[in-house]
Amino acid sequence: MSSSSSSSSSSPILRRLPLGSQWPCMNPFLFCAHHLDAYPKGNGAYGPDAALLAGRNLGHDFSGQDGWNMYHGHTVPGFPVHPHRGFETITLVRQGMLDHADSLGAMARFGEGDVQWMTAGSGVQHTEMFPLLHTDRPNPLQLFQIWLNLPASHKMDPAHFTMYWNETIPRLHHHDAAGHTTTVTVVAGPLPGAEAPLPPPPASWAAQAGSDVAVWIIELAPGAQWQLPAATNKEAVRVLYWYEGDGLSVENKAEQAQTALQLDSQHAVQLHNTGQQTAALLLLQGVPIDEPVARYGPFVMNTEAEIHQAISDYRRTQFGGWPWPESAPVHGPTPRRFARRPGKTEDECPPAAA
Q1: For 313-334, how does the pLDDT look when each residue is reduced to its tens digit (9 = 90+)?
Q2: 3-class secondary structure, 315
Q3: Which residues form the signal peptide (predicted)?
Q4: Which residues contact 92 (CB under 8 A, 6 or more apart)?
Q5: In Å, what is the CA distance from 45 to each residue of 75, 193, 236, 313?
Q6: Residue 316 — φ and ψ, nearest 5°?
Q7: pLDDT tens digits, one per residue of 7-62
Q8: By residue range, what is the domain housing residue 203?
């Protein structure tokens, strides 16, 4: 994570970094991608009602043409079957729908604020497809995918599927002196004033005592002010990503553009939305995993020898095989959110609104 500029020693802002297609991350996080696609109406087969050949490299389309990508999909946008080992994926869908299937036998359609947390552990295959369900209107999609490393002691634990429904995710609703609202969605890590945090997967670094992992979405209404509290553990590192909105002041200093801010985690930081639109920020925080990292594509281990072993194991076992008849399954035309857990035959759906 290289710095584009530094701040004075008195400032809680340690570095400012530009946002690209893959956002800059710090240990224990490995990767953060913000997928923002203005998909058109669907063609009735879950793909875009648009010509796909001109200007797109189908199977590897990150062109952003017309404001959207096909990624590795040929007909439906998304990521057909692929393997992982040695880390976790946290997928936050802010808008639109995502269809998941994996080698554990789990499947899900989730979106509109839902979160899936998947521990790859010793190995898993999965798909992430973005079906365009609406044929009469556009199908906008916004999601984050975050990779969180696993410590060596848990890299070879069994894979694990976790689903957090939007209706169950803790939130803080803060009203400042002027009555402006800040909402903080707490995917991981406790936050004073919010409900008790959801339990992370058992092998996760977030489940280990003292890791101080936090994954929060902070949304400030126009004019809103809120103080981001200091981290609990003095060893925690934190990065704040301002990704939406037209005005933000941090510690009474205006930021000139959407950016990533590495912050001193031991300082509370005052945030103020100075714009006319909602300001949205993602916070990633955690104590670093003090271990070497070896990476090769979808595998994250501690040594090159372990990477070679992961490749060999995948070629030999396919991490349990692929139980689905297609490499990019889509779960039908109904825009119903659900999950089917490994080994289960009945669907789980979000709780009914109170």
Answers
A1: 999 999 999 999 999 999 999 9
A2: helix
A3: none
A4: 115, 143, 144, 145, 146, 187, 215, 217
A5: 8, 45, 46, 35
A6: -80, -40
A7: 445 889 999 999 987 899 999 999 999 999 999 999 999 999 999 988 899 999 99
A8: 1-21+170-291
Do 147 and 38 fall into the same domain? yes
Provide the 3-class DSSP secondary structure of residue 153: helix
283 and 258, same domain (yes or no)? yes
The total number of structural domains in the chain stands at 2
200 plus 131 within the same structural domain: no
The alpha carbon of residue 74 and the mean position of all alpha carbons in its chain are separated, in whole angstroms, by: 23
Pair 36, 163 in one domain: yes
229 and 320 belong to one structural domain: no
Using one digit for the tens of pLDDT, what is the confidence trace for 197-242? 999 999 999 999 999 999 999 999 999 999 999 999 999 999 999 9
Would residue 351 count as lying in a domain?
no
- Tell me which residue has tokens 């400012």: 16
Instruction: Identify whether residues 142 and 36 lie together within a single domain.
Output: yes
Q: What is the C-alpha separation between 324 and 174, in angstroms, rounded?
A: 45
Can you read off the two tokens belonging to residue 105?
């036998």
134 with 36, same domain? yes
pLDDT in tens, 267-281: 999 999 999 999 999
For every residue of 67-93, which 3-state class applies, written as one string? HCCCECCCCCCEEEEEEEECEEEEEEE
How far is C-alpha 233 from the geometric centre of its chain's CA atoms? 23
Overall pTM > 0.90: yes
